[in-house]
Amino acid sequence: MEEVSAPAPRSGGRGRPRGGAGPKPVPLRDVKTERSSRIGTGIAELDRVLGGGLVPGSLVLLGGAPGIGKSTLAGMALAKIAAAGHAVLYVSGEESAGQVRRRAERLGEAALSVSMLAEPSLESVLAALESERPAACVIDSVQTLAVPDAAPGSVGAVREATSALLETAKRLDVTLILIGHVTKEGSLAGPRALEHLVDCVLHFEGERERTFRTLRALKNRFGATSEVGVFEMRQGGLVEVQDPSARFVGEARPAPGSVVLCAMEGTRPLLVEVQALVATTEIVPPRRTATGVDRNRLALVLAVLTRHAGISLSSADVFVNVAGGIRVDEPGADLAVALAVASAQSGRALETDGKPLACFGEIGLTGEIRYVAHGDRRVAEARKFGLDRVLGPPPADEPISGLFPVGSIKAALSSGGPTPALRRAA
Ligand code: TYD
Ligand code: MG
Fold it and tell me: Which of 37-51, 237-251, 365-379, 400-414 has the lowest mean pLDDT?
């Protein structure tokens, strides 16, 4: 191939000398990559969130509040990886060997064949990795590893442990799952300080008193961050929920303050029931409680209802809840929150042919219903459950069969609404 002539270096310039052996940039398409095959965890929902299983030599941080099920999930994954013929190691600084064994007994026979190391120091873990060469190793938790010359659980200790583990994991091709406790506020020394060091950050969340749990990727160097796994905590460990919509709205009946939200969780449509309660109060300022939806979005929706739909809530407590203890983290939830609150306030159920009303859409500050992605898939999911009328923003291009487009919150609540119930609610 002919050499492309570079502009001649200006006199006094620091052009590379002719024939020099400096590094030569190459087009990315010619860069060699090692495509090592991933290790399936045997838990489909976990594999999906990871982007298709664990990448050998990678570091995964699994965070979540105490008691949410991190140890259970990690223990189950190791059991399945071991059953597939790989060496695995479970390092527990959180619990005694006996406690880990008792959990494994609940999870079944395969979990008992996982090797474990109790009361670990960083040094002993590094030595075990060298000698055992496991394919996957769980550190439960990264905050409990003893590190020389650092206070246990301090940011310094957690960072030092992680850097040392990272070096060893890459060198030996061990996949490491670091478990980290995160408080409700998302703080605590460890996990946040590690996010930039690890390849993948998973967050396990849900209401501890409820059985549903969601697993999200907040960062993933090897896949999308939008995927969400849904689990249910049962007697024998975590069970994957294959059809979450059926779980969340299978039983939903029209009632004042209830509406079905067609949400998207990653690439999956998910129907959830959004409930609201509006109660007169003397308290100033009145209470606003949001469970499962963002507090700030609720505040915005209430302001828009007041300003653009004439619904006054200044002397009422407002509670909004996503049934089943699941969290929806998307702007498309706004319209459902607004309609649930309006319905609760008017005391009238929103329904079509005896079925709950379904909707989706973001609400803008001027009261407009804004476009959100995947309208067609949201509507299709609703229709799968016999919810044939879905309120939502006008589609960007082609009309969506079954979608009743509404341009503003006012239109959604009044004559633009498809049902008499809605008209009465306004
Ligand atoms: P755990 O995994 O210990 O939570 P974390 O490591 O995040 O602190 O488990 C949390 C809860 O799950 C615990 O209260 C007991 C319950 N659980 C079950 O309901 N079924 C089971 O099979 C197991 C193993 C635990
Ligand atoms: Mg634990």
Answer: 237-251
Please give the backbone phi and psi of residue 309, each rounded to the nearest 5 degrees, phi first: -130, 5
Provide residues with CB under 6 Å of ligand 1: 64, 66-72, 103, 106-107, 233, 235-237
CA 40 to ligand 2 centroid distance, Å = 22
295 near 309, Cβ under 8 Å? no
Sign of the C-alpha dihedral computed for residues 416, 417, 422 and 425 taken in this order = negative
Q: Report how far residue 167's alpha carbon sits from residue 146's, in angstroms, rounded to the nearest whole number.
A: 18
- Ligand 2 is an ion; its neighbours by CB within 5 Å are 71
Query: Could you give the CA distance from residue 411 to residue 367 in angstroms, rounded to a whole number?
Result: 10
**Whether the model pTM is above 0.85:** no
